[in-house]
Amino acid sequence: MSTIWHVLGAGSLGTLWATRLARAGLPVRLILRDAVRLRSYAAAGGLTLIENGHASTYAVPGETPDSPEPIRRLLIACKAYDAENAIARLASRLAPGAELILLQNGLGSQDAVAARVPQARCISASSTEGAFRDGDWRVVFAGHGFNWLGDAGNPLAPIWLEDLQAARIPHEWTTDILTRLWRKLALNCAINPLTVLHDCRNGGLTEHHCEVATLCAELAELLQRCGQPAAAGNLQQEVERVIQATAANYSSMYQDVANQRRTEISYLLGHACKVAARHQLNLPHLNQLQQRLVAHLRSRGLPSD
Ligand code: NAD
Ligand code: KPL
Questions:
Q1: Is the CB of 255 under 6 A from ligand 2?
Q2: 113 lines ligand 1 (CB under 6 A)
Q3: Which of 48, 168, 221, 297 could hold 302 in an S-S bridge, CB 3.0 to 4.6 Å?
């Protein structure tokens, strides 16, 4: 009998993973916040994945955090700012040797989760797949991408990678997941806040070439200082390539702000500034960017953390 995949969070990525695992015939349980959400989910009859315009519904069983069943394998698919509280509610259900897969963008939440559940193995993921909700319990698979998975404290690949293969979830095990996470954080720091402050698509940043270049130089300095030279290499070139390749898109942070949703600023720019301060590294443009973004979020009535 295969190990059950518990999936916490029925949002975009949680649904994208849960439906593909269920489609492959693997056992999946969806963990919802409370009984009210569980009743709403039961009424909908399952999770719907829309791929290439075709919708398929999967009757993945749902449960609340209080369900008694032990958890051996848990995919945490909430936002970075919700991850620590979410795991705290499930800690008593984790079986010995439980494994957690953390899908959160940025850095900081992974350590906070690991500190809450030292008995579990925490595996981090860096995902470039794209999905969004077009209704309750419905997700559109918008951008094919890739998932890098790794455990900074243990290079051994887990056995369940074969489940991801069966579910056709594109992935690779990496022994340098921290480098992947730092690189993506740096890209997000160089692009996302500026798209918010200049109110533009990613491509609009070609008009702000110098500002982007200055930020890339400071970010590369930070990556070097915190022992991530591989993440620092050719950063500006890659940022410019991503700006070109995604010119027509609005960044995820832009979309959060435009939709009055809380951003993950504390785990992106906030984390970068915090680590720089810890290393006594003076990065004036990065700090100023954070202050401008915080002021902007406050002016829109959004949380600035
Ligand atoms: P989302 O907001 O669509 O989904 C998060 C879900 O978690 C929500 O349904 C929320 O209600 C639920 N949740 C929060 N706390 C919970 C709790 N305690 N118990 C049960 N459910 C809880 O978010 P998302 O877009 O799927 O993003 C998840 C993470 O993946 C983020 O860090 C994001 O940056 C990252 N990411 C997303 C995408 C994407 O395309 N959506 C791509 C790459 C990375
Ligand atoms: O990941 C991104 C995002 O919008 O969050 C890109 C497209 C790379 C821009 O930073």
A1: no
A2: no
A3: 297
| 246 DSSP assignment | T
Q: Is the dihedral of CA 214, 219, 225, 229 positive or negative?
A: negative
Residue that has been written with the tokens 């969806």 in this structure: 30
Cα–Cα dist 287/214, whole Å: 12
For the CA of 47, the nearest ligand: 1
Atom 12 of ligand 1, nearest CA residue: 9
Rounded to 5°, the CA angle 268-37-259 comes to 40
The CATH superfamily label for domain 5-175 reads NAD(P)-binding Rossmann-like Domain (3.40.50.720)
Ligand 2 pocket residue status of 113, Cβ below 6 Å: no
The angle that helices 235-245 and 209-225 make with each other, rounded to 10 degrees, is: 130
Answering whether pTM is above 0.85, one says yes
Which token pair is 188?
């997000």
9 ligand 1 Cβ < 6 A: yes
List active site positions: 184
Dump the DSSP string for 228-293. -HHHHTTHHHHHHHHHHHTTTSPPHHHHHHHTTPPP-GGGTHHHHHHHHHHTT---HHHHHHHHHH
Distance 204 CA to ligand 2 centre (A): 14
The answer regarding whether domain 179-299 maps to CATH 1.10.1040.10 reads: yes
Domain ranges of the chain: 5-175, 179-299
d(CA 23, CA 80): 27
- Per residue in 215-230, pLDDT (tens digit) is 999 999 999 999 999 9
Question: In this predicted structure, what is the pLDDT of residue 1?
Answer: 72
